[in-house]
Amino acid sequence: MAELPSRDQDLLGTPTLARDRRRCAVADHTEATYRLTEIVGTSRESIQQAVRNGITRASETVRHLDWFEISEIRGTVVDGDVGTFQVKMKVGFKVED
């Protein structure tokens, strides 16, 4: 009988985001202080590109940007079609010593 994946693995046995976040928290963040802020990335192409645009832009002005969490997806409608994709994200960055 084949072994079932653990709760933290997908059907292919790949670690899920939950496991990766726990590892990251234990390995890198045990003595760190983080700050959260919200940003909205936009794109005319896709939700994924809106995320990338937001992270890329935030990385230009925020040091030690380590993670993001999508909190809202929305967009605009222009002439019956998608005009822009908008992705609201929380981003976390390490506070410098």
Order of helices and strands: HEHEE
What is the helical fraction, as a range of percent?
A: 25-40%
Sheet-strand content, in percent, reads: 35-45%
- Please name the CATH topology of the domain at 33-94: Dodecin subunit-like
Largest sheet: 3 strands, antiparallel
Cα end-to-end separation:
52 Å
CATH H level of the domain at 33-94: which superfamily? Flavin-binding protein dodecin
Shape: elongated
Q: Look at the structure and give the CATH class of the domain at 33-94.
A: Alpha Beta
Oligomer: single chain
**Count of individual beta strands:** 3
The poorly predicted ranges are none
Determine Rg (CA atoms, Å). 17 Å
Structure explained in plain terms:
- The chain is an alpha+beta fold.
- The protein has a domain at 33-94: Flavin-binding protein dodecin (Dodecin subunit-like, 2-Layer Sandwich), CATH 3.30.1660.
- It is 28% helix and 39% strand.
- The chain contains two helices and three strands; from the N terminus they run αβαββ.
- It has helices at 17-28, 47-61, and strands at 34-43, 65-78, 81-94.
- The protein has a three-stranded antiparallel β-sheet.
- β2 (65-78) and β3 form a beta hairpin.
- The longest helix has 15 residues, at 47-61.
- It is elongated, with a radius of gyration of 17 Å.
- The termini are far apart.
- The mean pLDDT is 82.
Provide a quick synopsis of the model.
The protein is an alpha+beta fold and 97 residues long.
